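Q:
Got a chain?
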Amino acid sequence: MRFTAPRSPSSSPERKPNPRRKRTSSSQRRRTSTFGLNSSSESDVDEVVDLESDSGESVPESSDSDSFCYGSESEIPPLPSKQKKLSSRPSREQNQIDDTIAAIRLRTRHHDPYEEWEKDMKKDSLRAARKNYNDSEAHFIHYQNQRRIEDSKRLAAAFKQDEMQLIQNLDGLRLQQQAREKTLQEKLAERNEILWKRIEASIKLEQDKEQVKLDEQRRVRDEAEKRRREEEENTRREEQRKRDAEERKRREEEGEKRKKEEEERRLREEKEAAIQEAKEREERLKSEEENRKAAGMTTSEEDWKEARKNLQVVKTQGTRLVKATPTLKPTWSSARRAITAKIGQLTNDAETINRVSSQLVEILLPINRPLPPPVYTALLSALAKALVLQAETEITAEKRSAIPLAEVTFNCLERLEGFSEVLFAKITQRIGPWALPCPIPEKDFDDRPWKDNQEVRRIQGFRSGEDGVLETQSQYTDRVKGVMRLYLSVLKITPKKTPLKKMFQLPRYWTWMARLLGSKTLLATAVGAEVLFVALEVLGADALQIWGYQFVKMLRVIYDASTEGLGGGKVLGGTTPDGIAARARVKLEVESIMKGGQ
């Protein structure tokens, strides 16, 4: 291969050609190429000359067109130290030698693009070959793995089939063995039974003889032992009776003390939880106040204050005024007794319901002479009280009795002016805030604080007996359930004429459920779980048909509360036995409603 060095312009002064210089042949140049250089320099020059002679070209003379030049003085390589001895040569010859050596050096440093391209092509080819090899190797390994998996599956299926065949064979052998064992056992049992009958007959004969003697001896001993035991038993019984009396008295005192402490602690916790919940509720209601007022909606606290205010009006302008007025009291007393009698005659048939409803309306709205306003108000209170008392007694004992009583109540609400407010106020008085529902506020409707816990319990709906002792929690829960069943049954009835007041309309059911589910304090009590069950039992299926998916979401919240709890360590119904039973009934009722709606 011929090496050529590129030419570059030189910044050194131009060198004029020598006209006397003649071209020489390759042999002459070979003879005169040393120019007095040492043998190593001469050999290098000869190699270059030989390469050029082999290619068929002659070495051109040094001229302006073919001489080698550097771009600047800094690019000129330093001369070898040995050339300092060649100072006797002419400058032209010395320059030619220097140019030749520089050209040779430049040729060795020359960058050939073709060789670089060839080198890159080799690298790319090697890289492509490696990639093809790796791909083929991966494909082969994948193929081997697939074949291995297929073989494993085939072997596993074969092993499984063999295993099933072995199991079937073993089961058949086991059944045969069991049959043979059963036959042998039956034969052995039959033989043993015959043998033991003979043995027992012989033993019994001997025992009968000996038993006569033993019975006589035992009778004598038993009589003496019986007399001794009776004396000891009488003494022990007397001592035990004294100890039991003392222990019972001590337990009663401790139980009373513990019960009182537990009641105080529970009331304190309920009060603290109610205060905290009331604060959170108040903050939430303040943020929603504008939207609520724009929609014409009220809060449970506002409804409770309104019911308390109506109750106070009924007492002051109705019952108390009539009792204090001698001219009005006889009329009120006779009408009140008639109302109580009519409510007691109610049965579950349409004719009786219509008749009793008409008679009750006639008592309060006589055709001949209208009643004075105080008497009318007092009789509305008496009618409401009679209906609520009937619900507390009859509906608690029999759920179906709520239907006729709700029909009569609905008829009176449709035809008697002002009866809605009076009845709702009376319900709030008898069962507390459960018809709203809401926790008991810290103050009355007139901002009067409560005197003590006794008054708070009375506002909650707890009744006192003739001896002044408050009813038990179980009695209170039964009364609340009966009245709430009546109230919810009235909401279920469709109006025939004009709609009733908002507290007795069907949408009130949704409001009631939303308020109850929003109060963890109420849901964490046994009464809360009981009234929630009553609400689902009376109107749950109808609410699912009316509100659809929205009510399903509410049922989901109730179901989660009955299974996972209310959060904050609280559970639906509390931890009492009554609460646990009520929580289970709520869960089952939700499941029943969802199954009926599918």
